[in-house]
Amino acid sequence: MKEVEILSSPVVDRIVDTAIEEDLGNGDPTTAITVSPARQAVGRVVARQEMVVAGLQVFERVVNRVDPYVSVSMKVSDGTRVHKGEEIAILGGRAVSILAAERVALNFLQRLSGVATLTRAYVKQIPEGSKTRITDTRKTTPGMRALEKHAVRCGGGTSHRCDLGGGILIKDNHVAACGSVAMAVASARENMDPSHRIEVEVESLDQVNEALTAGAEVIMLDNMKAEDVATAVQRISGRALIEVSGNVGIEDVPRLARAGIDFVSVGAITHSAPACDISLDLEIEGDPACAHPDGRRPC
After folding, report:
1. Cα gap 99→108, rounded to integer Å
2. Active site annotation includes 201
3. Which of 7, 122, 131, 207 has the fewest Cβ atoms nearer than 10 Å?
């Protein structure tokens, strides 16, 4: 699915609407009894750490779902690296609306920027000129996959399958159910759409041999020791693309890239990325002292 289609899809609208209902389903009584509905404000979205930004369109979607009359001016774009203290976006409109949208909008922006930032850290470990690519997995937050995979791409990574229908990947449990790597590949070859390529997850050098003999186009080396990975690369020798997965630390990336691995899949960039520190600083327009929630003294 193309990037534009992902960010404008009904899936994203459902995610946003669910998040808004979760936070605003019972209203916002604190704001209602303290802030005049006529009060205008400016909200400055500021990075509190160095990071890679992701999720700005979703941030704007949240704000506009809460109040379509609040303006959102982006100071940067998704994929931009920003420094601590740098402005990311500026909001303008009713203070009550900005306050109502603040937490949900920031939750998306902080979470997705965290994914993009961690992904960029992994990507930076790839030596210049290497063909190796960092790719994500399906280990994503339930309901958030489209957004998190977008964030991975903002960080310079690539996407593996977006869902189970995105390709043929024979994993260890498929092999167990079929009886062997060779039998699983043969069954897939017989029954699949010929436009698909077959990827097989292997856990030993013997299974590497089986996958090669069976004609797998991609071989995933799962949780294999460094020396076995090196041996597998020599045996495969260009006859299939090679992916490495399973507890890959950021410190492992340079070694795997030098070994000639095509793809390094990292579940941690989505399931364990820490949220980035981003704040929304509100500036009230006019004299706040003359604002009253009952509207008797509007400014």
Report:
1. 15
2. yes
3. 131
